[in-house]
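Kindly inspect this chain:
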Amino acid sequence: MANRKTERMKAAPHPFTPRQKETPQVSSQSLPYRLRDCFLSSAEIDFFRILHDIVGERFVICPKVALVDIFNVARPNENVHFYNKIFRKHVDFLLCSSQTLKPIMGVELVRPGIKSEIRSGDQFMEDLFMAAGLPLVHIPLADHYDINDIVPLFGIAVSKVKDRAFIPPSASSDSVPLCPKCGTMMVLRVHRTGSLTGQKYYSCMNFPQCPGMLPIAAKA
């Protein structure tokens, strides 16, 4: 009789033992997400292999990197238009330092066009990387790639950045002033009425609860 009681005690869960939560089962029909058939196109995969042969272990090759993960927009509340230009866009390949993963160079596959003609999208990417002091290599999209034709393009991209003598912007020019009254970040506004109509100024983000304001000196 005692043995049966002991067996029942062993089988019963301890009163302070937490119950294991059941993992909810997600039906394949409950969410409209599906895995893409391919992450990279066949042309991108072919170029990835060539790119790996070129850079070896010197760089980490990151495909399809979002531009917003590479670049910050200075004073984003003032430059919404510039943020929208890079939102939901990516660079085809980003070469990063194998030690620090710091971006070193971008690589973009471009559709071949008329000689000396640069598409507006390609020109924007060129200007974007140049403004940040980062080389961008334009590789004409092709069915076959020759290393001997591609390597010189890397040298051209690097020389463009060096020739420009890139000077990093000062931190103060990128910063947004804080409200002198409550310390909250300020936003750029424009006077709509009165003698100052059309002039820009900084106003507290908490306006009208906080009347903090800073004028912007007009440029000579």
Q: What stands out?
A: The mean pLDDT is 82. Helices lie at 2-11, 42-55, 80-86, 120-131, 147-164, 171-174.
